[in-house]
Amino acid sequence: MPRGVAADFQVRLARTDADVQAAQRLRYEVFVQELGGGGAMVDHAARLERDRFDPFFDHLLLTDLRNGKLAGVYRVMRGDMAARAGGFYSEAEYDLTPLVHSGRRLLELGRSCLDPAYRGGAAMHHLWGALARYVAEHEIEVLFGVASFHGTDTAALAEPLSLLHHRHLAPSELRVCAREFAPMDLISEGDLDRRKAMLAVPSLIKAYLRLGGCVGQGAYIDRAFNTTDVCLILDTKQMNARQSRIYNGGAV
Fold first, then answer.
1. What distance in Å separates the CA atoms of residue 212 and residue 194, rounded to the nearest whole number?
2. Is residue 135 within 8 Å of 127, Cβ to Cβ?
């Protein structure tokens, strides 16, 4: 029964502590149990993946109306929410000065995941449609957040990291930089097999690239989560008509 079509799903914001814990429970299943991640505040007994920023984020919950199951989650933080939190989550990994000083309305995205049974179907598109409505409601101009490659061996990720550096580097006015800098230009552009490299890019990152997204300077090695992170940046004003239709869940 999983997968489904758009009419099978509903997205709403978490309203209660129980809602947030449901999101943290799904995150535990994906980020800790499936991918081997961790963190100082992970509650293994209760099977909750959490951190100190959770109370300051809005949490989008994707529910399968056919069975009431939580199919996916996304957490989002506006600039005013980050001010109350003492900064954005990504600031631990990236110097966000170009974004913070841009004067534009920012939205940080994070902890996006789907239950394995719902991957490859309509679920993620429906979650993105809800995200697009949130962006419109709050007049967001720039979306950003860290996205991950599994593993911390950059040599094994040389092809996709080099592709991102050579072909999708953010413009200077939005180019954040990793605080603990891991170079991404590990293979020269002339020696790169672009097709092979793109096949190794995670689907979430590819999806943002299709929307016109770009990446910051350098990767960050997150050993607690067993990932190599890049900072994705999407300027909504630079999206063309086709990209906007995809982002809003419409036909191409």
1. 17
2. no
69-116 confidence digits (pLDDT tens): 999 999 999 999 999 999 999 999 999 999 999 999 999 999 999 999
CA distance 86 to 106: 15
How many CB atoms sit inside 10 A of residue 106's CB? Answer: 21
Amino acid present at 74: Y
Burial class (CB in 10 A: 0-12, 13-18, 19+), 164: buried
Element spanning 72, H or E: strand 70-78
CA 198/CA 187 separation, integer angstroms:
14
Beta bridge partners of 217: 177
Encode 42-75: b = buried (16+ Cβ within 10 Å), e = exposed: beeeebbbbbebbebbebbbbbbeeeeebbbbbb
Cα–Cα distance between 179 and 181 in angstroms, integer?
6
What is the sign of the dihedral through the CA atoms of 78, 84, 90 and 91? positive
pLDDT band at 169 (very low <50, low <70, confident <90, very high): very high
Q: Does the model's pTM come out above 0.85?
A: yes
Determine the 3-state secondary structure of 33 from DSSP.
helix
Residue 39 backbone phi and psi in degrees, to 5: 155, 155
